[in-house]
């Protein structure tokens, strides 16, 4: 067993300075790749999108020139741990000043070791404690640079990183299997219903639509009870619902029974869709559909998922500031109404897929727990 003892160093002493520039002034007609905060996926810790723009179109925050292998750490909402490594195809891209860009000095700090460190619970906890701003918590580059990192020899860093890389790859393989099964539901839906010439009907004729509400947060007797209280962050998260209501609180909200389709219709996450797994309350950003008999709930859910691009488009077109799709417009959306027996056949196939998912997800959770334990041991010198 190795030991890191208590040797630590400030991150700023182990990384290189990153060049900044002003593309509006220095290269107005040059095409560049711009990485903003929204380009980083918090779950996969990867850059999943970027903007290709001309220099004169660059926002004021587009100032940092990054290289392949640089590690981006979001300075806003550190609890979300928005971190990612810059891939080779984004070498010389421009990143938002909302990121602290960490470029390890190769003779002092292993890049993979650093990437695991900035994902660790120790680092996240430290940043959350040092963040300022109640509504928009953030840390500065200076705070990150002055934060301490366990600093064993370079060879030891590489050894630790290799172990964590292997454990992380196991988690990612399991997640890829889960993702493929989730995509299989779409594939089955398309195979069975694409080209279906069934009559389309508005949602209001096919189910009861209700908009959620939030009971008074100042009345503590409304919260921490047996009824899940669903908010947009819970939709399609794969995680248990974070907040709950008492029966009293639920009576002051809106409640649906299992198998209702829930759709976020307000805000940045407009179009997120999920199903209630049990009796659930939900907030005012969500419209829920409890399907009438002509629609099988599983079919209705997948039919609504097919409408996600429409929901996003209509919501963004309705407002120049906050995307919103009003209930009256939401109810006008139409889905096909194929033969109920065909819907039930689809539902049975989806149930088989979901059984596989129910088997895989706990295994993935156990791998996540194992990885977190290894990570904790690694940075305490116990690996």
Automatic annotation (TrEMBL):
Keyword Coiled coil applies: yes
Residue ranges of the region described as Disordered: 208-236
Official protein name in the record: Restriction endonuclease subunit S
Entry GO MF terms: DNA binding; endonuclease activity
Coiled-coil region: 160-187
Gene3D superfamilies: DNA methylase specificity domains
Family, per entry: Belongs to the type-I restriction system S methylase family.
Domain Type I restriction modification DNA specificity as annotated: residue spans: 86-175, 197-355
Family annotation (Pfam families): Methylase_S
GO BP terms, alphabetized: DNA restriction-modification system
Keywords for the protein's UniProt record, in alphabetical order: Coiled coil, DNA-binding, Endonuclease, Hydrolase, Nuclease, Restriction system
Organism: Qipengyuania atrilutea
